[in-house]
Amino acid sequence: MILRRALAREVLLTSFAVTAVIFCIFVVVRVLGFLRQAAEGIIPVDSIFVLLFLKVIAYMDVILPLMMFVAMLLVLGRWSRQNELTIMAASGLGLSHLLRPVAFLILVGALIVGSFSMVVGPMAVRSVGAIEHDLKSRTDIVGVSPGVFMETQAGRAVYFVEQLNKENGRYEGIFAWGSDAGREGVVLAQSAHRHTDPEKGQVFLVLENGVRYEGAPGDSVYRVINFERYTLRDRSTMAAPVKYPLHGWETTRLWHSGGPHEQKEIAWRISKIVVLPILMMFALGLGRVAPRSNRYVSMFSALIVYFTYTNLVTMACARIPNGGAGAVTLLVVVHLGFALGASYLLWCRSRDEPLWFWARPRQRTAG
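-> structure tokens emitted (367 positions)
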């Protein structure tokens, strides 16, 4: 009982530690990408952390099986180095004694991965799509940070905003430069706000109390216009309905659709749940390292098993839209093949038998 609780506790704690390390790497990579988009004016700075959180949630169903797999390998590898598994074997407790805590870990992990794969992950993808769609439908000046000169995506205008009043959505201290047909224009305004025409579906930026300078580069004469209200029409129209990718659809919607691509997405979501118990069985068999043996060989073998298994599952799921029932059968064969391989590996390790039949000693019969 103590060993079972210790295994479950240490695997869970190690999973949290490994997950934290992977999250730090993931966060750094994603933050750099979001900062680049914020610097280009594609997204506002205050939306970075919301998008980052949703991206992490969307990838949890892929990260968690790998984390539990690695955590199991690390815990059993440490027990092997500290001769705890050897003491267990001397006491008559083999690897089969650890099947109950491993089953508990598989149950907990499957429930978490299943919830993320079927419900939470697609919900996060839809939230990210809605936020990105809303940001793309806004005018270019929304992505400008106060106190920073920002070039628009088209590269034909530069904006500068001194302050942004978040309560009423008004901009203060506006500078705008634009170029069109060889003529340049500079606009200075005290304040500005957005206005939407509901009939025509067009978005306008209304500048108030300012001046416009217009002319061609190299000319000695520029036209100066003082204005109380100056309206700039946004090139974008009213936003179209959000179109989510398949991995953002609800599982019930995918199931009722029944198309080949929808079947592929359903198979992939179910496969992420099926992969977890098979990987845990592999980890239980590969985690035990013989005394004075190289533990890096076992870890390298485990990584080969993981990448081979997940890549084959991905390839089998990708063939479903074109392969139909044959591709589904191939996916089932992949899962069953690796499940049998994990069971055989665990059976051999629990009986201290070599993996290959020809390497086993033959029993001699008395003559």
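Residues 75 and 353 are 22 Å apart (CA to CA).
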